[in-house]
Design brief:
single chain, alpha/beta, UDP-N-acetylmuramoyl-L-alanine:D-glutamate ligase, 9-stranded mixed sheet, 4-stranded mixed sheet, 13 helices, globular
């Protein structure tokens, strides 16, 4: 890293193990010998996926997470070092802990299954985030509190305290979530109350649709699951997204980005420029131009080699756009472009190019703009982003 870090990415980190499934998940039955292909190992979690993607995009990045002093931890550190020798300088290696790992069963044609051990992530806490290294940092991004026991068991108190300390140092804040399984300890948390406590200290909130659907509309989500309707994205429409975004903005977030998978990225911003002033001062964006936006950036069309970590790469593209002073429209498109590069690679980050190369690729990659029939939404001729009815200046 040449010069001080511009962004600190903290939170969940793990070793991801992905066997090549030759016959799909349906072949997995007790008592059988199931032929598989090679095992592919990479790091995972928000710290690696988002942090290394930002690094590859040319943003000076520091990673902060916790590994165990074990074989998996050694492999994880080696994998991180392949992308940058000093990237792991702030990673804690706990002598008495074990490294978190996930076994990802993904056939590419069915919903994936993930077997996950939280490992050292269960003890990662506020004091493990290197706040003494914030000099020069413009943005603190934190990922996956639902998978970090210390950051959810107190209802968000540590999370809010961390972001408040960042703000007191002049550092903007960004938060990503993870999908919560209802029958786990994290599933018992009142996530609406959690967000009410934390979002006043969050400048950019970037959950997925399913994550925020569960957190804000728990009973509706559970009823949907009880009916065995697994494709929750069937419920995505402009009205529902606007309703969710309204609530999140009312809790205090300045920018809300909801990841919609293959449909792209929905972005909604506070209507008052003053609400964006802290973010603007830290990152260099134009608060006036960013205020009052409602956008949908459709995905690019690329060959898909894997979707694990694509949402994290999308976040990296969005945050890189912020740090380059892009408009909300430009940052949203940069986000889905980074996500497209991610799914085209062998892992979440190896196909992420440098920023200048990403901009060049965006000139030739095919967009999946399609036809959006949501009431009040439109795309101007020559543009690459849909504008919603809440978008200032749309009508």
């Amino acid at each position: 890293m040449s010069g001080p870090a511009e962004i600190l990415v903290a939170g969940h980190i793990s070793l991801d193990l992905r066997p090549e499934l030759r016959n799909g998940l349906a072949a997995l039955h007790p008592g059988r010998l199931v032929p598989v292909g090679p095992m592919f190992a990479t790091c995972g979690g928000a710290v690696f996926n988002t942090g290394v993607a930002l690094h590859r995009l040319g943003i000076r990045t520091r990673l902060a997470g916790k590994l165990g002093q074990d074989m998996f931890g050694s492999v994880a550190l080696k994998l991180i070092a392949e992308f940058g020798e000093d990237l792991a300088d702030s990673i804690i290696v706990a002598a008495d802990g074990r490294t978190s790992y996930s076994i990802i069963l993904d056939s590419m044609v069915e919903d994936r299954m993930i077997l996950h051990d939280p490992g050292a992530n269960a003890t990662f806490a506020l004091d493990d985030v290197p706040l003494h290294k914030l000099e020069g940092v413009k943005l603190l991004h934190f990922g996956y509190p639902p998978l970090l026991r210390r950051f959810y068991q107190d209802g968000g108190a540590q999370m809010a305290a961390l972001f408040k300390k960042a703000h007191s140092s002049g550092v903007a804040t960004s938060l990503d979530m993870a999908l919560v399984e209802p029958d786990t300890e994290a599933g018992l948390v009142d996530w609406r109350l959690y967000l009410e406590r934390v979002l006043p200290e969050v400048d950019v909130f970037l959950p997925s649709f399913e994550e925020i659907f569960f957190m804000l509309r728990r009973e509706r989500y559970l009823e949907f699951r009880r009916q065995n309707l697994r494709a929750v994205d069937a419920l995505i429409d402009g009205c529902f997204l606007g309703e969710l975004a309204d609530e999140l903005l009312s809790y205090g977030a300045a920018v809300v980005g909801i990841k919609l998978g293959e449909r792209g990225l929905y972005v909604r911003t506070a209507s008052v420029p003053g609400k964006l002033s802290f973010l603007a001062k830290a990152t260099g964006i134009d608060a006036e131009a960013w205020a009052g936006r409602e956008l949908l950036a459709p995905c690019y069309v690329v060959p898909i080699n894997g979707t694990t970590g694509a949402g994290d790469a999308t976040i990296a593209g969005f945050l890189a756009g912020l740090l380059h002073g892009e408009s909300a429209e430009e940052a949203a498109i940069s986000a889905v472009a980074a996500g497209a590069c991610s799914v085209s690679g062998k892992d979440a980050v190896s196909a992420i190019p440098a920023w200048s190369e990403l901009k060049r690729m965006m000139q030739t990659m095919e967009r999946n703009a399609g036809s959006l029939t949501w009431p009040g939404w439109r795309m101007e001729p020559g543009e690459n982003v849909w504008r919603g009815p809440f978008c200032r200046g749309s009508f």
